[in-house]
Design brief:
Helix content is about 95%, strand content about 0%. It has about 110 residues and is mainly α. The longest helix is centred in the middle third of the chain and has 100 residues, at about 1-100. The protein is rod-shaped and about 135 Å long.
Length: about 110
């Protein structure tokens, strides 16, 4: 019986030692994982900054390329509106003048 108890105590001591070893190695692995995660986060942040800057530069270049076309089209639309308004106002003044000057007042 004493031999059985000694084997149980020895097995418990070995299990405790194994658990402590596992905890220590797990702590080391956890530190390595934290360091790796930090490196990955930094790399992702750096790439995000680079990609954002590249996308912004491309957008600005594209807008600068389109700006003269937009300005020209805007000027053309404004001129067209001015001409259409002038034409419509001429017709309206003529119609109004005819209505005012007709004999029956219509």
């Amino acid at each position: 019986m004493d031999d059985y108890i000694l084997r149980i105590l020895k097995a418990n001591a070995e299990a405790k030692s194994d658990i402590e070893t596992c905890v220590v190695s797990h702590a080391d692995e956890e530190e390595k994982l934290k360091a790796t995660k930090k490196e990955i986060d930094q790399e992702i942040a750096q790439r995000l900054i680079e990609k954002t800057a590249a996308t912004e530069a491309a957008s600005v270049a594209f807008m600068n390329e389109l700006q003269p076309k937009y300005d020209q089209q805007y000027e053309e639309r404004v001129e067209d509106l001015i001409k259409r308004f002038a034409s419509a106002s001429e017709e309206w003044y003529q119609t109004l003048f005819e209505r005012i000057t007709t004999i029956d007042g219509q």
